[in-house]
Structures are given as C-alpha cells and as structure tokens.
Amino acid sequence: MRPWLIPLLCVLLAACGKSVPAPEVARAVETVVVGGGAAASRRDYAGEVRARHEAVLSFRVGGKLLARLVDAGAQVRAGQPLARLDEADAAQQLAQAEAQRDLAAADLKRFRELRERNFVSPAALEAKEVAFRLAQAQATLARNQHAYATLKADSAGVVAAVLAEPGQVLAPGQPVLRLAPQGEREVAFQIPESERTRLHPGDAVQVTLWAVPGRVYRGRIREIAGTADAATRSYDARATLLDGDGAVGLGMTATVSLDQPQDGGLRLPHTAIFQQEPGKSGVAVWVVAADGAVSLRPVQVLRWSDDAAWVGAGLTAGERVVAAGVYKIHAGEKLRYADRRF
CA-CA distance, 115 to 282, in Å (whole number)? Predict the structure, then answer.
C-alpha cells in the first residue's frame, strides 16, 4: 500500500464512526385557551336538611335514665312521654313531703280549735299556719320533682337525634334528645373564606337533594355566621327552603347552588400561574404562539377562587397559555400542546 493512502484511510474510518444526532423532540404540554369572565359563576356547596328551630330536651332533675321511649326519626305529639328516669328516690321524697304536710295540716286544725276556746295564743296559731304553708310548699316541690322524672315533648315534631341511652346517670340539664318541631325546613352548609364576601343573606339559591333526583327547590340564604369555624376555617350558613314538600326529610344530604356575579377578568387554572424569579415582582404566564414557541408574560391576578385564578391586565381572550408544568419550560422553547378542557 502506498504510504500516502494511510492518512486518508484513517480519516475515512473516523468519519464512519460518528453518529448523526437525533432531532430534538418538542416537549408536550397541556394548554388552555383563555376566554372572558362570565357574568356569573355557579358554585355548589354540600349541606344537610335541618329544621329552622330545634330544641334540645333534657331533664330538670338528675338521675339514672331508666327508659327511652322514642328513637331517632320518630314523629311525636305535644305532651307525649319521651324518656323516664328512675323515680324511686323522687317517689320516696314525695311521700315524705306529703306526710309532713298532712301532719302540719292536722296540727293546724287542732290549734284552731284550741284557739276558739282561748287555750292557745294567737302567736302559737300563727306559727302552726306558717309551718303548714311551708310543708305544703315542700310537698308541691316534691310533686314537681317527681313529675320531672318523665321527659315530655313540648310540641309536635320529629326526633332529630338521640343523645343519651338507658343506663346513663344524667345531670340536670344534660341533653337527652333533639326535637325538630313541625314547620319550616332549612339547609345548613358552609362557605369557604374565599367566597364569604360575595354571599349575603337574601341571596337566591337552588337546592337539590340526593334522595330526590331531578327535583330543584327554591331557597334563600337566611343567615351567615359572623365568625369562621375554628377547625374548618369556613362560615356556617343557613338557606331557607321556599317550596319544600313532604319529600324533604330531616338529615337528607343536599346541594346548595347559586350564581355568583363576577367582576370580569380571564379565568385560568391555578397551575398556569408562574411566580416570577427572585428579584422580579408579580406573576406571569407562558403564552404559546402559533408556531408553538412560548414567551413569559407578566399578568395581574384579580382574585383567587377554589379552582381558578382570575387574571386582568396582561392577557386577551383567545390567547393560549400553558396550563401545567410552568416551571419546566424556558423562553423561546417550541412545544407540542394539547388543549385541556377547563
């Protein structure tokens, strides 16, 4: 082989060993096409059917709960016995008080006869009269205490909850039953902090019941708590049912829906918002051009809701923005995208 061919062969062999780089694959992302803020946004809240007025019933005296005569959900009438305490001690005290009253009554009769004969002084007769009135009052009190051993319904209604069981030793005033009187029904629900300022008593709502599919009831917010619940950080609210019927049962799960007016802006998912790098203020979004190239654009967030951010200046309706993975792309990068339903 000729010497001058050796270097040429080495160059050819080195060229054959080089691999051709594969073309760069564009990153795939989800995008959304922004639109104008709707005139109203529907919000749904989970709730429970409750009576507007509920009474927690308890015994006026303490003792061992001997019997509970009704269960949760029972229909009761006014004056119906609901529960009984062991009344042995109360019956003994009543018998003793009545015996003392009868003895005082006999003494008073005898002293009145003696006074007519002038055998006792007026002061002695007056003392017996006072003793009789005191014994009579003690007997009345003992009779009341004995009657308090039976818990009765103050009005007709439905037993909403059972709070004590037979065998328990109850203190005076300890809750035994919760009674929901017949009448107006409401839905109790909770409002998150982000929506508290947008709702007010008197706002119209729609109520649907899981147990009555297809039926929509009209309602109106009656009250909203002034302070948030310490555990859930939400506000308790009540909506009155304006056209409730017999299908509405206490304790049923309900959905409260209402249209909340919005103040304009463009609706985006939370994941589309990009926090600017340290040293730069505000937030931004990645805007996707027609050729797939992305650019970072500062925007103004008007407000946040549970599922979206409402953006003001910086975007126009119809533009496409990256919906997720905003911290994994860079300016000028070309993307493959698929629109997310939002």
Answer: 102
The pLDDT tens digits for 11-50 are 555 555 555 454 456 678 888 888 754 444 678 899 998 8
pTM over 0.85: no
Q: What is the DSSP string of 22-59?
A: PPPPPEEEEEEE--BPPSEEEEEEEEEEEESS-EEEE-
Residue pair 59/170 in contact by the 8 Å Cβ criterion: yes
The two tokens of residue 190 are: 């909770």
Which amino acid is it at 309?
A
Q: Give the domain ranges of the chain.
A: 27-39+265-339, 42-52+184-261, 59-84+149-180, 88-147
- Over the stretch 171-206, which tens digit does the pLDDT of each residue have? 999 999 999 887 788 999 999 887 888 888 998 999
Residues across the chain: 342
Question: Which residues make Cβ contacts (< 8 Å) with residue 335, sequence separation at least 6?
Answer: 26, 27, 28, 29, 288, 292, 293, 294, 322, 329
